[in-house]
Amino acid sequence: MIYLDNSATTKPCEAALLAMRGALETDWFNPSAAYGPAVRAEKKMTQARRALLEAAGAQSAELTFTGSGSEADSLAIVGSAERFHGARRVLIFGGEHPAVLNTREQLERLGHTVETFPARRDGVADLEKLAAALDENVGLVSCMQVNNETGAVQPVGEIARLIREKCPGALFHVDGVQGFLRVPLAFDQSGIDLYTCSGHKIHGPKGIGALIARKGVRLNPRIEGGGQEKGLRSGTENTAGIAGFAAAAQWLAAQPKRFETLRAAKLRLYARLRAEIPELRVNGPDPESGVAAPHILNLSLGVRGEVMLHALEAEGVYVGNGSACSTHKREMSAAFRAMNAGRQAAETAVRFSLGMMNTIEEMDAAADAVIRCYKTYAAFQRR
Amino acid sequence: MIYLDNSATTKPCEAALLAMRGALETDWFNPSAAYGPAVRAEKKMTQARRALLEAAGAQSAELTFTGSGSEADSLAIVGSAERFHGARRVLIFGGEHPAVLNTREQLERLGHTVETFPARRDGVADLEKLAAALDENVGLVSCMQVNNETGAVQPVGEIARLIREKCPGALFHVDGVQGFLRVPLAFDQSGIDLYTCSGHKIHGPKGIGALIARKGVRLNPRIEGGGQEKGLRSGTENTAGIAGFAAAAQWLAAQPKRFETLRAAKLRLYARLRAEIPELRVNGPDPESGVAAPHILNLSLGVRGEVMLHALEAEGVYVGNGSACSTHKREMSAAFRAMNAGRQAAETAVRFSLGMMNTIEEMDAAADAVIRCYKTYAAFQRR
Question: Phi-psi region for residue A125, left (φ > 0), alpha (ψ -120 to 50) or beta?
Answer without folding.
Answer: beta
